[in-house]
Amino acid sequence: MNLKKFFVTAVTALMTFSCTGLNVSAEDGLMNPDEALTDGNFTYELVNGSYTIIGCESSSIINSIPTMRNGYAVTAIGDGAFVGCSGISELEIPDTVRSIGMNAFAGCSSLKKITIPETVTEISSCAFMRCTSLSEVNLPDTLTTIGNYAFAQCTSLESMKLPESLTTINPEAFTDCWSLTNFDASECPSFVFENGMLMNSTKSEIYRGSVELDGDLYIDNNITVIKPGAFSGCAGIESLFVPSSVSTIGADAFSNCSSLKKIDLEQGISILEAGAFMYCTSLETVSVPITVTDIPEETFAFCTSLNKVIIPEGVTSIGTSAFLGCENLSKINIPKSVKTVGDYALGYTTGEEDYEKMDDFSMSVYSGSGALKYAKSNSIKYTVADRNIKQIAFIIIAVGVVIAVAVFAVILMLRNKKGAPSNVKKARKIEEQQQFEDSYEGIIDNDK
């Protein structure tokens, strides 16, 4: 298996893991068989006098969810209940259901349309992640919260109407939705959709950008935060200009912006989160703002065209795989302030089965720094920048001392000439002449 593909799979798996820590599988739900029920399509568990669906038969053709079973209402869809159920193409959830669990419909690749009932107030984390055919979602007027990764990687989702009740959209709710062009926020006072961007009502935070954005993208001076996944997969953006008003660029904010060639990040940005520019395969140069202290994991991973990076003094850490797979980056200067460099952060790419060192990669580092330790431990070519500086400084100081001594000797000699009697001057001259001759003879003897 190609390691680069494995890396993508691993990142997706980590995303899923963050949503599935509390998942209940169908098998796990049968711990108490007296309270479990299976009807051929679903597996139910009796919880506080009502049924929760905890699993489904993946091959079943399912169009609806029952409201009752054995005299008990079906009131919840449990964590991971429908994971990978490929037989679902269109589903209407009944009003008896009050909650939809984490990862509930993740990976339902045939699901195209879903209607969520008025009884639901929150869509949990990863609830519809990787529903790659999902193009239409009807959100209820009772909905207040959309969870982390709730619709992540729903690559067919084109638009969404936000209800008036919605107040919270959690990080990466719409990350990698590569067809998402429009939000209707006309009835939702907490959010506004303008200039191809979904923002909070004060227009200080960007939650998601339309994939129709192209060319130059200028972030407004009113913006302070670019949320995680905000522009992921916006393949038309070519140049990015981020003003000093922005303090944070969230995780995966510009990941997979495949046409992005230039980024202009003004001083003032203090936080870059993991994977912020990952897979920006056209990006050529990066100048990290002096206000940034940490370059976290995978920030510029697989930016395959990247050939120049300027890291300022003040950066203290470079995270794991921060520049992994940057195959055109052959040289980089790391400042003395960097104390730690994570695994495979610099000078590595991915092969078929393992990480591979780049043969033509070299680093300029400082003595005693974390970058020097990294270069040595990974057998990466390096030069020590301050070693040459120290040598030059020593030469300058030595020359200065010699000049000072010579000047002092001349002054002293002139003083002696003025004050000494003629017979003393004559004797000194004879002595100096003799010393010169002795020295000369010594040189001649050595040459022999």
Short account of what is shown:
The protein has 448 residues and is α/β, with parallel strands linked by helices. It contains four helices and 34 strands.
What does this structure look like?
- The protein is of the alpha/beta class and 448 residues long.
- The protein is 19% helix and 25% strand.
- The chain has four helices and 34 strands.
- The chain has helices spanning 3-20, 370-377, 385-419, 422-447, and strands at 36-38, 42-47, 50-56, 62-64, 68-69, 72-77, 88-92, 99-100, 113-115, 122-123, 136-138, 145-146, 159-161, 168-169, 182-184, 191-194, 197-200, 205-209, 215-218, 225-226, 237-242, 248-249, 262-265, 271-272, 285-287, 294-295, 308-310, 317-318, 331-333, 340-341, 348-350, 355-357, 362-365, 381-384.
- The strands form ten sheets. Strands 1, 2, 3, 5, 6 and 8 form a six-stranded mixed β-sheet that branches. The chain has a six-stranded mixed β-sheet with strand order 16-17-18-20-22-24, with no helix packed on it.
- Strand 33, helix 2 and strand 34 (381-384) form a beta-alpha-beta unit.
- The protein is elongated, with a radius of gyration of 34 Å.
- The N and C termini lie far apart (72 Å).
- Mean pLDDT is 85; it is low at 20-33 and 439-448.
